Amino acid sequence: MQLVVLSGMKKQIIYSFLILLFYAGNLLAQQTKFTNYNRSLTKNGALSFDPKLKPFYHGVASGDPLTDKVIIWTRITPDSGNYSPKTVNWKVATDTSFLNIIQSGSVTADSSKDYTVKVDVTGLQPGTTYYYIFGHNGYYSLIGRMRTAAADANHLRFAVVSCNNYEAGFFNGFKKIAQRNDIDAVIHLGDYIYEYEPKGYGDSLTGRFVEPQKEIITEGDYRTRYSVYRLDSDLRTAHQQQTFISIWDDHESSNDSYKDGAENHQTNEGDWQLRKAISKKVYFEWMPIREAADNKIYRKISYGNLMDLIMLDTRLEGRVKPPTNFDDADVPARTILGSTQYNWFINQLSTSTAKWKIIGNQVLFSDMNVGFGAVDAQGQPAITNIAAIRQVENLFIDNWESYPTERNSILDSIQVKGIKNTIFLTGDSHASWSFDLNKKPVIYPNPLSLNLPTPSTSYNPATGEGSVGVEFATPSITSANFDEAVGAAATAQFEVAINNPIPIPGIGSVVYNPHLKYVDLDRHGYFVLDLKNDSAQADYFYLDTIRVASNIEKFNRGVATANNSNKITSISSIPATNKAIQQIAAPMNPPKSVTGLNNKINQDAVVIMAYPNPTSNEITINYALNTKSQNELQLFDAKGLNIKTVKLGTQTSGIYATTIDVSNLPYGMYYYHFISNGTVVNYGKFLKK
User: Fold this and answer.
1) Would you tell me how many other CB atoms lie within 10 Å of the CB of residue 236?
2) In which band, very low, low, confident or very high, does the pLDDT at 450 lie, cut at 50, 70 and 90?
3) What are the start-end ranges of the E strands in 341-492?
4) Which of 60, 402, 469, 536 minimizes the number of CB atoms within 10 Å of its CB?
């Protein structure tokens, strides 16, 4: 979705908002906000690429955490003229020094996937932070930090983001997210890239321009665009420090896309199905997402009994073209999910035993009524004129409300099956919204009452009765807000009028969106979703600017729903508490050497074997020394906790065997390090049965 390119309606919208200023009188005068941006040309001073990261210029990433596995990702940039397949080694450890390496391997990068590599690292422990690294030919990537999904949790935290348009501003939001050390994952709801040509949809005054210098259509185009985004230092650092769970929206393919076409795909741009397939393929190459049949992105990720995260595809999987007008009859019923995904989704909701059912979704699920902005050809109020109402309402026709039969069926299923604690997370709109969920919060448009909203018998906005869940929508990281599309003054009026009583001469006061409990239309940022057993809270954080590189953000409001309430229960000026335990950040620079990845082999000490394995009582480490050294053996459990250190003292050259009693250790996998003169020279693992 975008507002900027809808230039044909801009004057009408501004006129209508000015009329609303007359209607609302003192209410708007008291509550209107004006935001002034510094739009002078500025430079970040950042390098186009970081030479010290060679050949892993695009950094590292992790994604799709399960309780026992996580995807890790990197891309190797071949030297000029050398495009043969590359062997990339990888290691996973529980510490940033890679003393406790628990998994390792190698993978081949080649041109078929643009030299990107993904590894599905298995055998991990739930709710655990790990560190990973890639190596090639004596070069090392940044060390990445990743976290598995918890199997048993009482406190989870997620950063929720969408809409990071490179040309629209600096990715200061990702910079702040990277600095958080208690985030379980980043939930990215789409519009990770934008497909337009340079200056086609952005703010050229930021001095940030994309490549290639055209709208992207071919495989090479899409790959190049992702490359530009992933060279951004703030986005790269966010991926390095946080695990991502991502879905695409429309701009990863083309604006306002659906199964069989897109608003921004023209006949002279080739076959849509081919372009769609290319965009999906390249997304799977460049994003840390688990491979899936036919590149499907809808999936479920569970965090024990506290949360099921259900990620949907409301774009390319099954969506049919939206209607011409927002009030067109839904006959035959339109689908936004497609029958296969719809049935899968209802089954996931119905069978979930988790306390919170969290739905990652691209577009607004709640009805949003904006007909109060309707004006006629002379710029006069026309809020009872269906043709004028359509001109305003149709600006938001890309949302779930254009698929009412399917949407209502989902809400009916939630209500009839008694499904509690359902929360939709939404991107796309470039604004902050928090709604109670109900099929018809007001009856509108309503010919019997001059097309004005009338109260619904199924929803009580004062008590929240009739709400079956809530929706939290995240603002954009950089993509144009309402004020950047239609101006700060008009946006301020709209922000107040959208869910407050609007005095209409001769009629009285009317509320168009009584289910909308929180709204902010002119600030960039993200929210942190905080989940506990008794509540879920969306904490909205906003950036001071995106026009220049900045490290400043401010908390605005926390919007909460209490357990089993199925409605918004509070709006707080205090954010939810951080987790008690903060994770250790990954180092910002790649290491010069890493145990098990470097090409130098220590010829002075070697572990020959460890036996028996598996064992029930004791483990014997057989090792050999070529020189006098100070040695020790260390044992670690599966979470990286040092459980035993055996000091071997100073030993001369020779062959040794040291036996360690492990009879008191519980069943499980353990790891040992042989340390000579302070350096890990060998490591291994054994199973205690």
Assistant:
1) 23
2) confident
3) 356-361, 422-426, 432-436, 442-443, 454-455, 470-473
4) 402
Question: Is 390 within 8 Å of 340 (Cβ atoms)?
Answer: no
45, exposed or middle or buried, with CB in 10 Å at 0-12, 13-18, 19+? exposed
The CA dihedral of 264, 267, 271, 277, to the nearest 10 degrees, is 0
| Distance in angstroms (rounded) separating the CA atoms of residues 378 and 465 | 41
Any idea what the Cα angle at residue 140 is, between residues 134 and 146, rounded to 5°?
A: 45
Q: What is the pTM of this model?
A: 0.86
Neighbours of 277 (CB within 10 A): 16
What pLDDT digit, counting tens, does each position of 145-161 carry?
Answer: 999 999 999 999 999 99
Q: How far apart are the first and last CA of the chain?
A: 56
152 vs 135: CA distance, rounded Å? 34
356, pLDDT greater than 90: yes
d(CA 192, CA 284): 13
Question: Which numeric CATH code is attached to 605-688?
Answer: 2.60.40.2550
Nearest residue to 143 via CA among 157, 155, 129, 156:
129
Strand 307-311 relative to strand 356-361: parallel, antiparallel, unpaired?
parallel
Residues 186, 177: contact at Cβ < 8 Å?
A: yes
Domain ranges of the chain: 7-35+149-197+287-572, 605-688
Q: Where are the beta strands (DSSP E) in 127-197?
A: 129-136, 139-140, 144-147, 155-161, 185-188
Give the three-class secondary structure for 415.
helix
Report pLDDT digits (tens) over 229-251.
Answer: 999 999 999 999 999 999 999 99
DSSP 141-155: -PPEEEEPPPSS-SE
Pick the CATH number of 7-35+149-197+287-572 from 3.30.420.40, 3.40.630.30, 2.60.40.3200, 3.60.21.70: 3.60.21.70
